[in-house]
Design a protein that fits this description.
The protein is α/β, with parallel strands linked by helices. The chain is built from two helices and eight strands, in the order βββαβββαββ. Strands 1, 2, 3, 6, 7 and 8 form a six-stranded mixed β-sheet that branches. Its EC number is 3.1.1.96, 3.1.1.-.
């Protein structure tokens, strides 16, 4: 399971012209599910996302996590993160989870995220989404479980 986190001052997701999720300061999480993933890998990534220290403390060092800054998390399914880009000029998706497995693990991840964190917004699984963000820094990290 791969999670691309971006520290944002705000982010939103629109589907068919309607905003379906938005946050102010916090993390935009693009979540990719691979064939070998399971609930244990989802739990591992969730802990990492919530604990990852990407926000500045009083000295300007990245020492604070999203909860410590009272930030939101906007979780968006992103199957292209599971792409194999090692050969050629076109991505392969043989390592990506099937749509059914990916939906089940994405839904599980989001449910656990909502149970652990007070401010969570989401995109719409498998929809054509337009994601807007103001990347603060920019600060972006690829996390794996």
């Amino acid at each position: 399971m791969r999670g691309l986190i971006q520290r944002v001052s705000r982010a939103s997701v629109t589907v068919d012209g309607q905003c379906v999720g938005e946050i102010d300061q916090g993390l935009l999480l693009l979540l990719g599910v691979e064939r070998e993933d399971n609930r244990a890998s989802a739990d591992k990534l969730l802990k990492k996302v919530l604990a990852y220290r990407v926000f500045s403390d009083e000295q300007g060092k990245m020492n604070l996590n999203v909860a410590q800054v009272d930030g939101g998390v906007l979780a968006v399914s992103q199957f292209t993160l599971a792409a194999d880009t090692s050969k050629g000029l076109r991505p392969g998706f043989s390592t990506a989870a099937s749509p059914g497995q990916a939906r089940e693990l994405y839904d599980y991840f989001v449910g656990e995220l909502k149970a652990c964190h007070p401010r969570v917004a989401t995109g719409e699984f498998a929809a054509n989404m337009q994601v807007s963000l103001i990347n603060d820094g920019p600060v972006t990290f690829l996390l794996t479980a």
